């Protein structure tokens, strides 16, 4: 799923989605109600949005 500029992956059959960068240590997650509405969201990502790249100099560049 996409929320803001970040993508999230669903964990098994639960209604909880974790940031696609979770394996890199990002703890952001989103929980959904059965109807699809957002129940809870932690959007404190440790990285820039997916449509940005970090250059070697540390700047964020939009793709
Ligand atoms: Zn993240």
From TrEMBL:
Q: What is this protein called?
A: FLYWCH-type domain-containing protein
Q: Provide the taxonomic classification.
A: Eukaryota, Metazoa, Ecdysozoa, Arthropoda, Hexapoda
